[in-house]
Amino acid sequence: MSAGGAPVPPPANPAVSFPAPRVTLPVGPDILRTYSGAFVCLEIVLGALVWILVASSNVPLPLLQGWVMFVSVTAFICSLLFLGVFLSGVVTQINANWNFLDLAYHFTVFVFYFGAFLLEVAATSLHDLRCNRTMAVQPLLNDNQYNINVAATIFAFVTTACYGCSLGLALRRWRP
Fold this sequence. Notes:
The protein is mostly helical. It is 62% helix and 5% strand.
């Protein structure tokens, strides 16, 4: 009992209460005015170009370029969802540490995209490899496929750099 005779309520159970969502990025269309929002938009556009270019090369090396396609399409969809969650304002309704989720997402995608970039470089570098294709020995990639793969390699590098910049910005926001 307190001095006034009223009972003292028990302390709140810390296991039941959840912290407010931690997010330092703006919500709604204002996210597009930040560097992070601009990088996510670039990641979406450039990532789409990567998988469109790889797909248009007829994927002459399916083992290497299949992984590039998987990473670029998955990162494209996840980046769209990431941007959509911030544009719609859902981040204010879900109790989570969005700064950490941003960091974890961009770290994971950066690592996978860097690997995909290296595989695309390897696929492009094999253009002079001679293969026996039904009696005639021909290069693995014809000139058109080679040019498309060079463009895909360049865009994969730029997309990887965008994910790296987003990772750096997320790291700055995540640090206490």
